[in-house]
Design goal:
Blueprint: H1 2-18, E1 24-29, E2 35-42, E3 45-52, E4 57-61, E5 68-76, E6 79-82, E7 86-89, E8 95-101, E9 107-113
Parallel strand pairs: 1-8
Antiparallel strand pairs: 1-4, 2-3, 2-5, 5-6, 5-7, 8-9
């Protein structure tokens, strides 16, 4: 009798974990250069990405602790770029964040809430 209850509890946990509303961050590289040694960070998180090719993009879930912005630091050609903290999102709520690296290597950040 305990096993079916345990199986049901585990199933509910797995289902709720797969429907996570953690923020999704997409980095779009619109420059003509490969971005390398990319570090994306915010309140309570820091992620490294080896490279993002010219015209490419990289998508990931981030897990900030509370309210956050996003900062990108990367190499492009002979330049080291630091975007500084930009944007606003929270740990929950289903945010989608897009960080776009433009043709001049400037970074712009936009956010939106996912609708369910």
């Amino acid at each position: 009798m305990r096993i079916p209850i345990l199986i049901a509890a585990v199933s509910v946990l797995l289902a709720s974990a797969s429907c996570s509303r953690a923020p999704v961050l997409t980095i779009k590289n619109q420059s003509s250069l490969t971005l390398s040694n990319v570090v994306v960070s915010g309140t309570g998180f820091s992620e490294r990405i080896a490279s993002i090719p010219a015209g490419g993009e990289h998508r990931m879930r981030v897990r900030p602790q509370g309210e956050s912005g996003v900062r990108m630091v990367f190499d492009a050609g002979t330049q080291r770029v630091d975007s500084g903290a930009q944007g606003y999102f929270e740990a929950s709520g289903g945010y989608r964040i897009t960080a776009t690296v433009g043709t001049n290597l400037s970074v712009s950040v936009s956010e939106e809430l996912r609708k369910y």
